[in-house]
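--- STAGE predict ---
source: upstream dedup step, 1 unique chain passed
mode: sequence only
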Amino acid sequence: MEPADATAVPARYRHRTPRFHPDALRKLLINALAATGLTDAGGELLVFSPHDFRRIFVTDAIMNGLPPHIAQVICGHKSLDTTTGYKAIYPAETIEAHRAFIARRRANRPSEEYRTPTEEEWDAFLAHFEKRKVSIGTCGRAFSSPCVHEHACVRYSLLRPEPAQRGRLEEIRDNLVARIAEAEREGWLGEVEGLRVSLAGAEDKLAQMDRRASGGTAIDLGMPRRAAAQSTQAEGTASLTQSLDDQQ
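--- STAGE serialize ---
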């Protein structure tokens, strides 16, 4: 397709060789296969389309360790099921290929990262979670990270408030309101700004409690289990057939 204004295209690109049309490529493939005399299991001559190379690439990439979700992004598929059905292997093989990929990644990492922790390191790890428990809830800061809010926990976005401590949190909110009024009355403007930040944090934590209370009860989804080999193969075949239909 030529641009509406040929002068808008840089000179070095105006006389490029035109691209092959898909029909031309398809004819070249058919003629090349006919010359080889290769046949399928039924004795019919093999027939390939340019799109088959895309399927071959996905199959080879996943079987050599490319994570299926990365193949999904490369192919532009909206669903991972399309990608796993897109290749000429079954989901169980996909899982095994991904496990092999993870094993190779681990083999390339420094061995000290997989050593058994010392007693001191294990005690420090457990102590971290014990120290995350505060009066109004549980702090969600990462392991081995300091408290960046200087223990003004009500300001921390990752503090998960405990519903049973709602009364305590309301007292903190009311106290902050009173302190802000006092600071404004006395002209302590430097205090007002910091107290308002804490007040906003307390009100946000109370709003979190309200959202959790109105969110309904939790639903137990159970644990995933691996399907029988026969059903897995049947599902993989059906997914492959649907994918081929979609790509035609």
